[in-house]
Automatic annotation (TrEMBL):
Residues annotated as domain ZZ-type: 32-77
UniProt xrefs under Gene3D superfamilies: 3.30.60.90
Name of protein: ZZ-type domain-containing protein
UniProt KW Zinc keyword: yes
GO terms for MF: zinc ion binding
Keyword Zinc attributed: yes
Length: 121
């Protein structure tokens, strides 16, 4: 199975590698040294590509282009611009994304929420 996945990967040109390296740097700079890939198209997430984090799934982020395409339509997505983005915390206050472990937000939950199917994550 793994060898099949490797065969499907596109060989990047020198220019494409340079662009991806720059995008990786932007992602790390925006999120306090952490970097994030779009779980749909594998582009590095930064303020220029957008970062939209699923509020239901544990670890699912997409770029603006994929969000517009509707690649994850059944769950709410939160826009995270950089490590300074404010998110609600469990105790009713707000914290910066960069202050949360690995820049992954933990959203306020309520006891009467019915879990949804997360099999498409």
């Amino acid at each position: 199975m793994e060898s099949e996945l490797i065969k499907e990967r596109k060989v990047l040109t020198k220019e494409e590698k340079a662009v991806r390296t720059e995008m990786l740097k932007q992602s790390r700079a925006a999120f306090n040294g952490s970097s994030f890939l779009c779980d749909s198209c594998d582009v590095w997430l930064s303020p220029s590509t957008g970062r939209f984090s699923c509020m239901v799934c544990v670890d699912y982020d997409v770029c603006l282009e994929c969000m517009i395409k509707g690649v994850h339509p059944t769950h709410a997505l939160a826009r995270l611009t950089d490590a300074e983005t404010l998110i609600p915390s469990d105790n009713g206050t707000t914290v910066k994304v960069g202050d949360v472990f690995e820049s992954k937000p933990r959203f306020v939950t309520t006891s009467n929420v019915v879990p949804t199917n997360t099999s498409n994550c």
